[in-house]
Specification:
Structural class: mainly alpha
Helix content: 40-55%
Order of helices and strands: HHHHHHHEHEHHHH
Strand content: under 5%
Largest sheet: 2 strands, parallel
Shape: globular
Radius of gyration: 21 Å
Distance between the termini: 24 Å
Number of strands: 2
Length: 251
């Protein structure tokens, strides 16, 4: 899901100051570029998997990409307050990390940013109800927003809220610098390579398992060579090459 609606508001998470209002046309262009970029990524990931000897037959490699403007654009303020606002508890909202951090800052927090978590919560509720979505993945800074969605689903008495699989998954993954939103190249190769080559020795084995499709035996062999000569950063270089192949190599 891409924030065609929430991108116009701005998430306060991880920021000390309020975001400048985004130009609507720029947001729409970003949504289009990100949509194409995500689809391109999955196509390349499919090719990468096949090159590693994995069968993708029967797997849904074409992602369903949507913008939350599709539902937020049609809901009016009164309807939103009756559907979402009535279930929101201000004390809980104030206790979110992103809100508490901003309330203690010199510039404070605008009402628009304060209510952002309700928009994201409704996104999860809407996708849960319309698409059967039970897992939301985000960085650690999104934990409060993810919890808000779980709580909203529960309070609206959605049948899926009793499903043990309907839980959040907070995942902090490496941030690879993005320098443009070109459909065919969301990430530029050089920053991606540089980032993964600099990964700490303590993390590289875990990342090889998380972000590549290398077989366990091959990953173990790479780590053995790396431990013998850590100064050569053998594991980091292989990790960087694998991730770059996934993201940048054309099908």
């Amino acid at each position: 899901m891409i924030g065609g609606a929430t991108g116009r508001v701005g998430d306060p998470s991880g920021r000390l100051t309020e975001r400048q209002p985004a130009d609507v046309n720029q947001v729409n262009d970003n949504v289009s570029s990100l949509t194409e970029g995500i689809r391109t990524f999955f196509k390349r990931a499919s090719t990468y998997a096949q090159r590693r000897g994995m069968s993708v037959e029967g797997l849904a490699m074409e992602p369903a990409v949507t913008s939350n403007l599709q539902w937020h654009g049609d809901i009016n303020l009164l309807e939103f307050l009756r559907t979402v606002g009535i279930h929101a508890r201000v004390n809980t909202m104030l206790n979110r990390e992103s809100v508490r951090a901003r309330l203690t800052s010199q510039r404070g927090l605008s009402f628009t940013e304060f209510t952002y978590q309700l928009l994201q919560a409704y996104d999860f509720y809407h996708l849960n109800k319309s698409q059967g979505c039970t897992i939301q993945i985000g960085g650690s800074d999104q934990w409060g927003n993810i919890l808000a969605g779980i709580e909203l689903i529960g309070r609206l008495d959605n049948p899926s809220s009793d499903d043990p699989e309907a839980e959040a998954f907070g995942l902090t993954t490496p941030h690879v610098p993005r320098t443009n939103l070109e459909p065919s190249l969301i990430f530029t190769p050089l920053p991606s390579l540089q980032y993964f080559v600099k990964v700490d020795d303590a993390d590289v084995e875990k990342y090889l398992k998380l972000f590549t499709l290398l077989r366990c035996e091959e990953a173990a062999s790479i780590m053995e060579a790396h431990r013998a000569q850590p100064e050569k950063r053998i594991a980091q270089k292989r990790l960087a090459a694998e991730v770059t192949e996934i993201v940048h190599t054309g099908a």
